[in-house]
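Exercise 4. Each item below gives a protein and its sequence. For each, produce the structure-token representation.

Item: major facilitator superfamily protein (Salix viminalis).
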Amino acid sequence: MTGAAAVWVLIAAGNGSNFALYSPSLKSVLGLNQQQITILGVANDIGENVGLLPGIACNKFPPWALLSVGCVFCFLGYGVLWLAVTQTVIGLPYWLGDD
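Answer:
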């Protein structure tokens, strides 16, 4: 049961497969250059491939807690992304350079 729930969270949080779909919107709406978009893409890939901490957490916490945290982070991440692309919030900080 928890395996199925984890797969649904993974499908809902499919950043790796759809970054190319929303990166042009980030570039145009936020005024980022190609280097900044590339850095965001690399950070996205690194974030997806760091499996040590979630592996440790799986041994220490119950599955419902891990899935809840995953759902909250997915909602927050896509929520901020949606707010930025729809220009509801203006001028999100970009900490890696102002080129």
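Check: The mean pLDDT is 74.
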